[in-house]
Design a protein that fits this description.
Structural class: mainly alpha
Order of helices and strands: HH
Shape: rod-shaped
Mean pLDDT: 89
Distance between the termini: 14 Å
Number of strands: 0
Strand content: under 5%
Radius of gyration: 15 Å
Low-confidence stretches: none
């Protein structure tokens, strides 16, 4: 059976890192985050996506009990 957790984990991890880095680079741009009430949404969602991807990779590495 194909384990889909590995590609999903890799995809979310890579995209999460890219978005989080973009959020860090644009942190000083207040005009960009004016619509979101000054919250750096890119950084928050990038970190959440990275965590989700790492959790998926962790569960794909965990040995199956059978």
């Amino acid at each position: 059976m194909v384990d889909i957790r590995i590609p999903i984990g890799l995809m979310f991890s890579i995209i999460g890192v890219l978005i989080a880095v973009f959020g860090l680079v644009t942190m000083s741009n207040t005009e960009m985050y004016q619509k979101s009430l000054g919250v750096n949404v890119n950084l928050i969602l990038g970190v959440l996506m990275l965590l989700f991807g790492l959790i998926m990779l962790y569960f794909s590495r965990k040995k199956k009990k059978a």
